[in-house]
Amino acid sequence: MQSLRCSGRNTPRRKNASNGWWSPCPLPATPLYVMEQIDELHRESETQQARLSDLEALTEQSRMLHQDFSFHQEMIESFASAVDSATLEEKRRLLRTIVKKVV
Fold this sequence. Notes:
Blueprint: E1 13-15, E2 22-24, H1 31-85, H2 88-102
Antiparallel strand pairs: 1-2
């Protein structure tokens, strides 16, 4: 976008009626220059669209991971609650089963 603006050097100047300051006077743009700028902006737009798509995909993936995490967190809390309310004999059987599965 900066290439569309006048650099201010070696540019004709004119007095701005609204504020009284001298400002660079834009030079007439050639059709080739305009087409190059359109192509550049089009490529930039495509790049931004691709990046936006990537970010949307990451956002969706993050949302799914958060749901999975919440589900597992609820399962662990439910298991802890069940163990807390179990009798001593049930806790012993549970520990034996866990040890057999791990070993």
